[in-house]
């Protein structure tokens, strides 16, 4: 399929929200453009030359179309002899995307069969890692034996750690294209689903017509992961009792394709970490608050776990997960992190929001990530599982509470969003993501989506349209308005990716298997192109073009729960708006 030189959001536009497109052209002067529908010219204008975009390596113009008020199908935008893919204008544009992006989590479930009623027969599969699977699956997992985390130089990354306990850590979500399960990646993902539920519930109370099925699914998926995270705690009587194991995964990498129920590898619990423990403390406290109205017993269990794990993390403040990437064929990602002030801030913030207790208030106020502190919370590169202070700041700003400095917190979110709008205005492809070194990082689409959650938080704080416009434009970048003219979400757009790196959505390798399900976002361009496929195909290209839609290109084209979670949040918050507003709760 040829890529039109007019790049735009291939899914469509919201009525009343101004939008733009990008024209790739060598022409230096402005050129006329026309918006058409069914052979009729709807609107005309003149392009704005933007020169060379170094992130794309193209000379480009922008086409400032403005807002379309009437819904409709089959719009196209033409300029300089090129015509865009067709798109539509609809108020319900993002509701299907929110539902599909959330259904991805159900399909990632471990330990339970996926029936054809979930997403069709192509995605049905037996339960993975059950007691009947090789080595007992995840129902009886031992600790990694001592000396198994050795570098080539003989350094033991776990410093001789092992333990004698065996845990049932069944359930939860498979993290990504592999079948490992990682607490810190699960933590940010479940937090964003819980946050989406909390914000949508507030909108429903204010008059928005929110899909009840989506709300139920958000609760159910969050609980599924929370129950698994609770199982990852180190039992009493063991070394590091009360802390949380960092991860569970195979002894070595399985080949592609391998369905979960056919995984032949032994599974091991890896050493606990302070970061994993703080992740559980944060999301258990958040879950206790969000789920209390639906299951008081489970909420009480979560709050007890949050208190206990927070105390355990304070008692063991620097038990770090090492970089196990240096161990050959270790079977899982490292998720190493040496800076934990942000995790402590997040856990203290969620416990304070849930309990209102002064001890947690004192801890979050003393944290260097709090307003007035020395550690930056919002940076141009965005936030992710390793940098979670933004999660805390967003919840402190949007969840009603009695924090004395709440107005300063809310102002900090608005300032961060203002900076993102300024960055976005300088980017001809409409993205708020502009790393200071000019290089796109692993999971750049996830970083873009997380930046959009900042814009939508500012929209909720202020009620101002411009932040919603920015979020819509940023989502449009992921859905086609980019240097490659690709939608990075399966099933959405005329030209969408469909070969993301996965061991069981592997139709590229085995035609009896499906491609990833609709609503699955790809990691996206990555300047480092660490895998051989991407390095050979696009290594060294400008940042936006360091991408190839190939199942072997794991450094640019993997799928993960922590990239799909902000897609759920952004799509849902854009989809379910309060009547008469741009979609926010307004000033709260």
TrEMBL record:
It comes from the Bacteria. CDD domains: E_set_Cellulase_N. The keyword Coiled coil does not apply. Residues 97-570 form the Glycoside hydrolase family domain. Keywords: Carbohydrate metabolism, Cellulose degradation, Glycosidase, Hydrolase, Polysaccharide degradation. Its EC number is 3.2.1.4. The keyword ATP-binding does not apply. Residues 3-84 form the Cellulase Ig-like domain. The active site is at 501, 549, 558. It catalyses: Endohydrolysis of (1->4)-beta-D-glucosidic linkages in cellulose, lichenin and cereal beta-D-glucans. GO terms for molecular function: cellulase activity. Belongs to the glycosyl hydrolase 9 (cellulase E) family. PANTHER family: ENDO-1,4-BETA-GLUCANASE (PTHR22298). This is Endoglucanase. It comes from Cellulomonas soli.
